Each structure stands twice: as C-alpha cells, then as structure tokens.
Amino acid sequence: MMRTRPLKVALLGCGVVGSEVTRIMTTHTDDLTQRIGAPVELVGIAVRRPDRVREGVPAELITTDATALVKRDDVDVVVEVIGGIEPARSLITTAFEHGASVVSANKALLAQDGAALHAAAEQHGVDLYYEAAVAGAIPLVRPLRESLAGDKVNRVLGIVNGTTNFILDKMDSSGAGYSEALDEATALGYAEADPTADVEGFDAAAKAAILAGIAFHTRVRLDDVYREGMTEVTAADFASAKQMGCTIKLLAICERAADGRSVTARVHPAMIPLTHPLASVRGAYNAVFIEAEAAGQLMFYGPGAGGAPTASAVLGDIVAVCRNKVAEATGPGESAYTRLPVSTMGEVVTRYHISLDVADKPGVLAQVATVFAEHGVSIDTVRQQGKDGEASLVVVTHRAADAALSATVEALRKLDTVRGVASIMRVEGE
Amino acid sequence: MMRTRPLKVALLGCGVVGSEVTRIMTTHTDDLTQRIGAPVELVGIAVRRPDRVREGVPAELITTDATALVKRDDVDVVVEVIGGIEPARSLITTAFEHGASVVSANKALLAQDGAALHAAAEQHGVDLYYEAAVAGAIPLVRPLRESLAGDKVNRVLGIVNGTTNFILDKMDSSGAGYSEALDEATALGYAEADPTADVEGFDAAAKAAILAGIAFHTRVRLDDVYREGMTEVTAADFASAKQMGCTIKLLAICERAADGRSVTARVHPAMIPLTHPLASVRGAYNAVFIEAEAAGQLMFYGPGAGGAPTASAVLGDIVAVCRNKVAEATGPGESAYTRLPVSTMGEVVTRYHISLDVADKPGVLAQVATVFAEHGVSIDTVRQQGKDGEASLVVVTHRAADAALSATVEALRKLDTVRGVASIMRVEGE
C-alpha cells in the first residue's frame, strides 16, 4: 500500500527551529515514512548565510536562492521558519503557485495576512498549516480547528508568551522589580537583547488574533487586538494581588460577547485567582484555557517556544500535509463564515482593581463612591489603609464595560482628595 | 463550493451522550454545515427502549432496529454511543461493510478489538474515529495521532477516570476514608451504583491500552495492561504522602523502556509530588501529561466524562469524518508499525514507598537494610518513628524493577522483627 515516490520537502530558514526540523527529518526518516504512508525527503534548505556552521545539517542541501527552491515543481511541501513579513509572504505565495503545501511557524505573518494566504492556498488546492505559530509544541490550532469543530467556543484565555511569564513569575516568587527580573530573563536566554516584541505584548497579540479567528470562525487581524505590555507592573501590584488571593499574568483573552453578536481579542496584564489553573503556570511555560459550550473548561499546557518544541509542532504539520498529498486531499482551510465583528476594548466587560492614594480625612470614601456610581460602575470591595496623614483606598469593582471603568478612573484623578492613582489592573479568570 | 447532497448520520444509543449529540446536531445545524462544507442530517436513532421520554429528541427518528439502520446504504456516518462489546462490535462492522465511517466512544471495545476494527475500516476505505473514548472532551487521540506525529512520545501519565479522582481528592482534602468518600461520590452522581469498573481500574486500563497504542505506534490490548484498583488506599497512606510532599492519584502510565525496545502500560494508585502538574487536578477532572522527545512536557486538562463533554468530542469526530467523506479521503488509520512488545509489570522501573510496623529494638534497621541490599534495591530515605514498644519504619527506594521491589517486600514480611507491612505505594512523576 505504500507509495514509493518520495514526498519532497523544502525548508526556508535554518536557525534554532530549522536545524531541529532538519535533525528530526534526517534521523527519524523511517518513522516519518511509516506515519505518512510514503517516503519523505528533505531536498533543499534556503539560508541567508551559507557559510555559517550548522552541525548535522547536510551541506549539499544548503542554498541561498530561496525563490528558486520554492519554484521547483517537484517540491510537495515548503516549510517556512524564517519569520517576519517579507520575504516569507512572497515565498509562501510562490510555493502555493507551484503546487506546494506550506507549513509555517510565522505568527506575525498569519496574524497580519492570514486571510489572503488561506485564500491563495485554497485557490491552488493546497494546505496551509501553522500549529507552530501559536504556543510552540502545545497543540492548539488542531484542537480548536478539529477537535472542537462540533462545539461552540466562548472564551480563550492564555499565557502565550514564555518570556513575559518568566519575568512575572520571577517578580511573584522573589519580590523582584520588573527591571531586575528582565535582567535575569536576558541572562538566562529567555529574553532577547531587544525584548520589545515580548514585553510590550506584540508577540502575544499576534497569537491572540490567530486564536480568536480559529475559535470563533471569523477574521481577526493583529490590528483588531487591544494590546498593553507588562513593563509597568510593579512589586506593589504583586503585593496587592497577593492580598486578593491572586497573581498577575500577561493574558491573551479572546471572547464571544454575551449576546453572541461580536467578539473581542486583547492582551494585557491581569490579576487572576491563585485557584485558577493558569495561576500555577511557572517559568517560561505557556498554557491556554478554553471554555466551550459542550466541552466545558479545557486547558493545554507545555513549552511555548524553543527550537525542539517548535520543531515538534512543525513536524506534526509536515506529516499531516504529506498525508493529505498522498490522499490527494486537503485539510480544513480557513473557516471565517460567522463574519462576527471585532468590538473595541471599551466594549469589553471586565473588572478593575484600583489603588488610590487619598487624603486621610472624613468624606473621601463617599466622594470616591459617588464617582463610581455616576459612571454606573458597581463596587465589589473597598479596603482603606491610613499611613501618616495619607491613606490608600483599594477598590475592586464588579463587572462593567471597560469604557465605563476607564472613564471612572479619569474622573477619580480629578478629585482634589485623590493624590494619585497608584495602580490599575484588570481582574480576570473568575 | 458547498455540496448540496446532505451527509446522513445514524446514531446508535440515546442515553446522556446520545441525547446531547442529538441536541447539538439538531440545533447547531448551520454551524455544522459550514464547518463540514456540506449539509449534515441525523436520519435515525437506534434505541432499546423506544417508549422512554427523551426531551428534544425527534420521535420520528427513533427506531429499535439498529441493524437495519446501519445497513442503510445512504448512511455516511454511524455514531456508536451504546458502549460494551456486543452488539456494538457487530453493528460497527456492519456499518463498515455498508460504506459508513464510524465515530465511537467505546473504550472497552477499542481496547479489546481495536486492531480488528481498524483493519475492517481500512478494508472498506472508511474512517474509525474515537476521540470520545479517552478522557471525554479532552483532545488526546488527535494530538497524539496528528500533532505529535513527527515526534517520539516516551511517556504518557494520566488521570483518566473522574470517579476515582473525585474520591481520592476528597480523601486528600478532608481526611475521609475510602468508604466515606465513595458514599459522597455516589450521592453526587460521580460514582455508579456498582463502582467496580471505576474503582478497580478497569475503565482506566482500557484508556491506558488505547493511549499506549497510539503513543507508541504499536498494539496494546486491555490484557496487556497491569491493573490495581484504589479501594485499599487509606487515610494513613495520604498522611504518609503528605509527609513526603506528595499526594495520591490513580494513574494510567504508558512508558517506552529506556532501551526503546519495549513498552509498558499500567494503572495503579501512586504518590506524586505536589509540584507535579497532575497533583493539582481536582474533583472529577481528568488530565494527561505527555513527555515527547522534541515537544518536551505537555499537559491536557478538562472534564473526562459527562454527556455534554463527551458529545463535544463525538461532534468533533463527526465533523472530521464528514469532511473526509466530502473530500473522498480517509484520515489516519491505525499506526502499529513499530510492533514493540509490551513488557510485564515486573520489568517496569519504579520506586516504592514502604511503611513497616517493626519491633522497637536495636538492629532492626540493619536487618531491613540487608533485605533491600540482597534484592539489589537501593534505599533513598528511611524514617524511623517509635511508639510504645513498637516502631514504624518508612522506606522510600531508588528506582528499581517492580519485580525486585515486590520480592523485597515479600522477604521483609518474613522477618521476625517486621510485625506487618502497613502500606506499599509506588512513587511516580519525578
């Protein structure tokens, strides 16, 4: 039953992920052949710097001409692990035009141009798979696209960036400040020299866009995702979180509105209860919590980055698209039929934890409470603490629209008796 | 692009899972149509008791003639949620013969006759999908068969039975004994009137056989799985576990031997460290921890049983096999090419926690230590406690073959100074 013509795979990029993909493809060839139902062969690896030493990578496969490689009509599958928008996008499009299916780990490209790429794949009757683009080795795209295909997903709540989780976990466990924790993450190789994409939430926002699109069967682009980084989280915020039985995580949150007629996607730091399964996700690990109508609450946990875990996800997709090639079929493509609009952050319903420095005199609480009432925001708990003529007031609200909550904070800032807003943090996962 | 002839689905069984499958298929028809790429229609529901009131189930679909239903040549997909070996096996086989793909939630049947059923499906060019057979709504079969298809799984460690996890969690948190915790589980509907299949580990053993087969690409039958129930776990065992920083879980453990030349599958209670992600799985939840060469450590968590969660998994499979029908293809079938033999429990490498009641006199520890040494079992820690002329000795071993460990325990029982073996428990997850 086994076909004998080998499936030919071309690899674009040979960094930490690409070299691990090469290692597995060249050392586990028999297993891959059995699992695909046909032999599989790596026929070329496009790199920018051909002279770099790459242990275990066959030198005869290396080329600098990526375009010529994806134009080869005998290539069945192109694996793109270059990252970034160009030349990745052009190379993938050219691969489609020449009949190749594509496996990509490129979250930025998929979050920005997923719709056009899916359309191009469908037009040419080939596959576009990208399990590795979200949370490394953790199966998420496939469970959402396939396992939950008969269910209705209402919420996705995830820790999808290992760098920021490492930093926040460090701040939580050691009481360190942000800079100190970032320095340790950099020293240990968890943070890049320029950590902007991670700490400002850009990386997580791209993943949120991809997850929201798959979960709700609609189109969500990177621009649709509200984004706040975690560089302003302080040791004092962690102390406040502890008093509430919470910790702080940078969360990617994708939600269907209560009326079912729109969706939202956002990335920001938030307090979550210590009893929530995401609270105990340590170090650079990732985890994604999914709430679906019939399935209930599911969680997927594992290493969200790194060469070997990402290569595992890429290889799973290579096996899948190769099987499809053997069967002369394609897997599920983009599913965006619900066309649900993406609402703005102001419409998101959430809770705020607000810490105010106030004058220590009678009537302050009444003034503050009036401001909340005027904005239609209901207060859950208030805690007052006096210290040398000054006092602090910690307010946790009930659920309200983010626009109303942020307008409340702006109004509080204008009160004479409010000396300053020490911290504002959303509360999620309850 | 949408085909117009509807895919026809026949349902066998209409208990808690079947009626939820019916509810979703009849109320979420438009979503299913969009996700499949063709309309889908429920054309018949075979039940034993047609007169039973089933809210929301269209009466005109009910039939008592299951055989006639699966013989209908216009049926594309048969969904089997009857359970048990017969008549499920004959009905599935007949469905294959008439060209239908099958979605089954039947762990007992798949663990016993999976190989023959997979062969029959392949012979007739149809699919056999069974995500719901293992751990309800938690995607496990698909991640193992597809997401990790390019990786090498070395270990699967899971809590795959909600009833026993509820009981053990209750014993842990309240100090209750087994009987008391079982009574509560029964009162709350988590345990059946006859809890044997759950508490004696039969249910978990069937799931272990299925998981081991998929994970290691070999055939593992129910008979190959070593099984110990959890009815003899005591409050004293939990107290010992706590002293070690552990809790006790009923685990399904599937492992590849260190030399890679055999596999094992087993179900038994075991101590696991509180720091292990499985330790915090509460109540009736299930979770499965997977260790793979490239992916590293992954965990999947969710509701392991119940009508709606199981229906979610069944529906995901219905969408998948319907898509395959539309594409005139089949998904991945059985993958048992490694033909790795299944070793016996004696060959499993594990650690023992042994609690002995001994005479409180000098030389006892030396005697006991000699017995361990004679069996080649190395001791990790020993704790001695005296109490009124008697003493207890708690020994935790290093890793050794289970046969050597159990022979050690037998030899200890024969020592004059050993009054009794108070408890023996394996230690896992380190």
UniProtKB/TrEMBL annotation, chains A, B:
Is the keyword Metal-binding assigned to this protein? Answer: yes
User: Needs which cofactor?
Assistant: a metal cation
Quote the record's binding site residues for NADP(+).
Answer: 12-19
Q: Which domain of life is it from?
A: Bacteria
Q: Which CDD domains match?
A: ACT_HSDH-Hom
Q: In which pathway does it act?
A: Amino-acid biosynthesis; L-methionine biosynthesis via de novo pathway; L-homoserine from L-aspartate: step 3/3; Amino-acid biosynthesis; L-threonine biosynthesis; L-threonine from L-aspartate: step 3/5
Query: What are the recorded Gene Ontology BP terms?
Result: methionine biosynthetic process; threonine biosynthetic process
- PROSITE patterns linked to this entry: ACT (PS51671), HOMOSER_DHGENASE (PS01042)
EC number in record: 1.1.1.3
What the entry lists under PANTHER family is as follows: HOMOSERINE DEHYDROGENASE
List the NCBIfam families.
PRK06349.1 (NF004976)
What does the protein in this record do? Catalyzes the conversion of L-aspartate-beta-semialdehyde (L-Asa) to L-homoserine (L-Hse), the third step in the biosynthesis of threonine and methionine from aspartate.
Name under which the protein is recorded:
Homoserine dehydrogenase
